[in-house]
């Protein structure tokens, strides 16, 4: 019973982060399942079965808060589903320990770019609103879906930074669209695992525990992402990408520093830089808000139509107007 409660809490926390930042549900949940001895294929299958429900709840919540671009969902989600099905059947027969460091290095580079871009310059606005092309979204979805199924998570870490880096969508719509399209990926990956593995190693009680926590968190996360300023949200997303993938690289066969003092110092240093970046973004956002408020006040002063208040209505009746007799 204690383990089921823990799984539900992990599902809630993972979906709260995933729905707010567009990533981390699969990575967080898969990490816990692997830590308690579940084999990689069964862990990924368990997480993806739970994600069918959590992504559906998250998608509906994001849609109700206006965070979804349905054209992007369709163009990235369908190729993502194909990639996820292929990745699931591939993982059932082969582990991806060799490819994992390469993947993490690519994601780490993207994370550094997002962190620096949003912290230093804020949201790129010169391309905001321009359409994303299918020739960009389709390969992105195919690759992200494959990574997601083989790694037990990866749809958000691949898709979210790529769309943010394009500068063509608001961060909240990037996150809402990625979370919503993940429903297609989760269904396809689950079908792939069931075809390749059957139900071997999949504990449906664990699936339901993860699902329960995720469903509770989904509407909270969708509301939160709508109210977080884009600059702060971008810094938060970039930091979590850098921290997560730096940890993976440090524990890979390339470096083999897992559990050492070096790992603790490196991850601690990244966490400090991440916190400083978010603090910087908060200050920059407040300055931007203050500048906008001053500009609006100056405009109101310069424009008489805005500056002059409307004349107050005189409550006293004029002498030539009839006054109603008291009843």
UniProtKB/TrEMBL annotation:
It is a multi-pass membrane protein. Residues 306-316 have a biased composition (Low complexity). InterPro entries: TM_pro_TauE-like, TSUP/Inactive_protease-like. Residues 306-327 are annotated as: Disordered. Keywords: Cell membrane, Membrane, Transmembrane, Transmembrane helix. The chain crosses the membrane at residues 77-96, 102-120, 178-198, 204-225, 232-250, 262-282. Belongs to the 4-toluene sulfonate uptake permease (TSUP) (TC 2.A.102) family. This is Probable membrane transporter protein. The lineage of its organism: Bacteria, Bacillati, Actinomycetota, Actinomycetes, Micrococcales.
